[in-house]
């Protein structure tokens, strides 16, 4: 059971948009930057969003991050079949003195 | 190009030991923290350990504290994870990941490059 709570699954049709939530607490999301990772099937994770809202070069602007209080969200617009995979939030936890990952959200594009 | 290549995974008996290594290239190794993240079969990501650029600070997940030791050799651009007293629940793909500057109180999970992972199986 992770200290960061994500919905186990999310789905949408091509072209649609959706949000994946990540709920934490004051010792993690409430105090520190949130990061988002995409893991496509049989691949290593890839950094999608850093410092709450920043995108590494090469990540399309269809992916955007936000944070409010002790929750964060990853928005994906213009869904594509290539977006199918698992999405994880991650943040440093001051109480645990280490990074924590959310349980992951499996995205299906119908 | 940044490249991280893990090696050393394999089958080990419960209670046994194993060392896995990550060879880094394509960037100035001493500029970054280095990290291990694992993924059990069919499960999510779990952070294991982090080490600052000059080995000043090391952080461990509670699940591995006292059993795993992270180290790095900046002259050889390599990162190690020495694992002992291995348990079945340590079975996972272990990824090496490049991270940001760490302080005594934090080492944020800003992992911009990852290796492809090495599988460690703990079974009798």
SSE layout and pairings?
The complex is a heterodimer of chains A (110) and B (124).
Chain A: E1 9-12, E2 18-23, E3 34-39, E4 46-49, E5 63-68, E6 71-76, E7 85-93, E8 98-101, E9 105-109
Parallel strand pairs in A: 1-9
Antiparallel strand pairs in A: 2-6, 3-4, 3-7, 5-6, 7-8, 7-9
Chain B: E1 3-7, E2 10-12, E3 18-25, E4 33-39, E5 45-51, E6 58-60, E7 68-73, E8 78-83, E9 92-99, E10 113-114, E11 118-122
Parallel strand pairs in B: 2-11
Antiparallel strand pairs in B: 1-3, 3-8, 4-5, 4-9, 5-6, 7-8, 9-10, 9-11
Short description:
The complex is a heterodimer of chains A (110) and B (124). By secondary structure, chain A is mostly beta strands. In chain A, 0% of the residues lie in helices and 45% in strands.
Q: What low-confidence regions of chain A span 5 or more consecutive residues with pLDDT below 50?
A: none
Name the helicity range of chain B: under 10%
Number of beta-strand segments of chain A:
9
**SSE string of chain A, helices as H and strands as E:** EEEEEEEEE
Number of strands of chain B: 11
Tell me the number of helical segments of chain B per DSSP (H or I, 4 or more residues long).
0
Mean pLDDT value of chain B: 97
Assign the structural class of chain B, choosing from mainly alpha, mainly beta, alpha/beta, alpha+beta, or little secondary structure. Answer: mainly beta
For the sheet with most strands of chain A, the description reads: 6 strands, mixed
Radius of gyration of chain A: 13 Å
Summarize the structure in words.
The complex is a heterodimer of chains A (110) and B (124). Helix content of chain A is 0%, strand content 45%. Chain A is mostly beta strands and 110 residues long. The N and C termini of chain A lie far apart (28 Å). Chain B contains no helices and eleven strands. Chain B has 124 residues and is mostly beta strands. The mean pLDDT of chain B is 97. In chain B, the strands form two sheets. In chain B, strands 2, 4, 5, 6, 9, 10 and 11 form a seven-stranded mixed sheet that branches. A four-stranded antiparallel sheet of chain B has the order 1-3-8-7, with no helix packed on it. At the A-B interface, strand 3, strand 7 and strand 8 of A face strand 5 of B.
């Amino acid at each position: 059971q992770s200290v960061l709570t994500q919905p186990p699954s999310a789905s949408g049709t091509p072209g649609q948009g959706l949000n994946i939530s990540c709920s934490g607490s004051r010792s993690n999301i409430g105090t520190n930057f949130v990061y988002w990772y995409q893991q496509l099937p049989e691949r290593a994770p890839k950094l999608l969003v850093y410092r709450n809202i920043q995108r590494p070069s090469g990540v399309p602007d269809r992916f955007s991050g936000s944070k409010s209080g002790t929750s964060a969200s990853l928005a994906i617009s213009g869904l594509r079949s290539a977006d199918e995979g698992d999405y994880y939030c991650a943040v440093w936890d001051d109480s645990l003195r280490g990074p924590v990952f959310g349980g992951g959200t499996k995205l299906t594009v119908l | 190009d940044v490249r991280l290549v893990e090696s050393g995974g394999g089958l080990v008996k419960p209670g046994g030991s194993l060392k896995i290594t990550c060879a880094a290239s394509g960037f100035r190794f001493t500029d970054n923290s280095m990290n291990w993240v694992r993924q059990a079969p069919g499960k999510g990501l779990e952070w294991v350990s982090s080490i600052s650029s000059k080995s000043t600070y090391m952080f461990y997940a509670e699940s591995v504290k006292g059993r795993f030791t992270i180290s790095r050799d900046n002259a050889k651009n390599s990162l190690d994870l020495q694992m002992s007293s291995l348990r079945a629940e340590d079975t996972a793909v272990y990824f090496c990941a490049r991270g940001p500057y760490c302080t005594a109180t934090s080492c944020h999970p800003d992992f911009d490059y990852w290796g492809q992972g090495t599988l460690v199986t703990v079974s009798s």
